[in-house]
Amino acid sequence: MDASFTQQWTSEMRRWTESLFPNCELSFPVPNLGNPYSGTLSLTAFWYRVSPGPGPQLLYIGVPDGRITALYPEPQTIRVGFAPWVTIDRAALLQKIAGCQIQVDPFFDDRFFRSLPESGRLGIMASQPKSQNPSRALSQLFHLYDQCLSQYLGGAPAHPKTRPAFYQSFVQLTPPGLFLYYRRINMAFWDWVEAGIAPTSSAKQEEVVGLA
Question: Average pLDDT in the 81-101 region?
Answer without folding.
Answer: 76
